[in-house]
Amino acid sequence: MAASRVGMLPLPLLLLSLPRVFATQTPLFNDRKDHWDLNIPPNPNATGHLVLNSISSLLQHWPNTRYHSGHTITPGVIPPGTLLYHGRNDPNIPTKAEWVAMDPEFARIFCSPEPPRPEPVDCWFLTIVTSQPLRILYFDGSSATKQPDGPMDTQDIIAWGVVLPERQNWESEYVRLDRMCEWAREAGFDAFVRMQLNFEIMLCDFADRVQTVSLSHLQYDEIFPHHGYSFMHSSEWHDHFPGEVRVQLDLTRVVSMYDTELVPSLVSQRSGQKRRDHRVLGISQEDIANVRARLSEKSTSGSGIDWRALFKVIRDRHTKRLQVLQRTLHQEREDSAERAFRIILNMITPYILDSATPRKDRNWASHVYELCSTTHTAFAASQTSLTPSERLMLKAAQETTREICRTLVGIWAEETASLASSNISKWRYEVDRLVAWLDWDDWVTCEPACEPDVRIVLFAGGAIFYEQMERVRADLFKIL
Asked: Closest by alpha carbon to 365, among 39, 101, 144?
């Protein structure tokens, strides 16, 4: 069957060929006041976009390495039938709290002693399986990274009841583990989930809710060149959405250090800072007590809203198109303004009311702004069964969509009312500002994409690029 001519058009030409379509709808809010003034930017201390960004990035390796100082603590479960792994140098099954890995490639490296020895060592490889739901608490960011600049701050709240950078090191790990498991027994948790290059579990009891699958004496093999790098490959499996799927989080109980009502003491601590410098150091004792109390609360049913899906929809609707819009605005082309306007129009068409009549003040488009901002959250806002965590996520979605819509509708309104003759420099500034404010990890990529035999190894300090390990040890990065 022959394709239609419209179907054969390149995407940019197809967009330009579409007519302007207007819909007739009634905004959902009646008490408007000046709430929908297109000239009012977000509060500098607003954290909704940070909450949405961090929660939509949970259990994903790439964004949680980029911003390694986590701000989110989330209860959840690891379901029955999940395999976990533990490597060691003796055939003893742990009787006390210990670490297990979620991927065997990561556990395997712990058969190798530190510091390395010239002689071979035994590798005993324990595989266990969850026999009942394992009740966990997950710390986002690179929370298994032992460095004193923030990745372990949220754990300190549980372990010590205060942030202690001097204990964020290897030497304090077993003391930290014991203290956290002591709190876990009282709060109703069995384990903690952390991430460095891979996800690991701090398991409090090897005799409860898990059982042994096998204890194998593996052949000796040096950690380099093979096993030490196979776990880097395994970390890639969890780089992006949906991330580590074997951990099931309960977002109705999520706790965020960006919650300005629960943790107001951190507002002044991060004022004027770049996000990479945000950390939990400086939190007040009152706020620590409130966080620990919130985490100890029993689970409630909540609203039933799939918040993860809602956040994903918001990002999916805008990620690629904002990227294309920004690139278009930075291109030196005669039709850049027209192309950019069509992209904006496509994004806000579902909200353009037939009653929206252009006039000199661009706030004539405030009803479009309102409808665009509230469509995804109106139902959630009407619910009375939201948990405190759900109210936080609702606010995050509202603040984020509001600023996206304010920017796009503002540009559309000015151009439609002919207040500016395609002021592309102003559009470029506004879109650049919006993209920087959202700061989504989807936009942090290699362009062009890396070759299949090239790996980006992400550490908490940043990304280190290896091209076949400088092509000196090409076998290190074989595809496994």
From this structure: 39
